[in-house]
Write a structure and sequence with these properties.
Length: 155
Amino acid sequence: MTDPVALLAAYDAQVRTALARRPPVGLRLDWDGPLLRATGWHRGFVGYRSLDGVDDVDALIARAVAYFAERGEAFEWKTHSHDDPADLPDRLRANGFLAEDVETVVIGEAALIATTRCCPTGWRCAKPRPATTSDASRRWSPTSGTTTGPGSPTI
């Protein structure tokens, strides 16, 4: 498969909420509409496949912030460059989040990209995982003072 649209669809369908299909030991999961909320690690996590059809994204964000604040737990909200609404990063900032470093996932057919040397000197290469696509990701951490101590976001 080399079609970018098909690769992106496969990534969204198979990777974005994969935790729900095979949660690690100690991780607790629950859903709030399209949001998968994970707790029990060094900090919480919010994942989703799509926010399409959500009438009030701001209310969904506020509920996630309140959920983790009630637990006293820092959390990450990972966005993707193709997420809708397009202004999701602005909405997260308006709710007290700061963007962490951009992450990039690059995929392709192994036969087309395999070489004897995985990466240039100084780069780290990871084993390929199935069903991912080229995608810039952002992790967002709340900046409010509701979480402190180990696991709090690094600002």
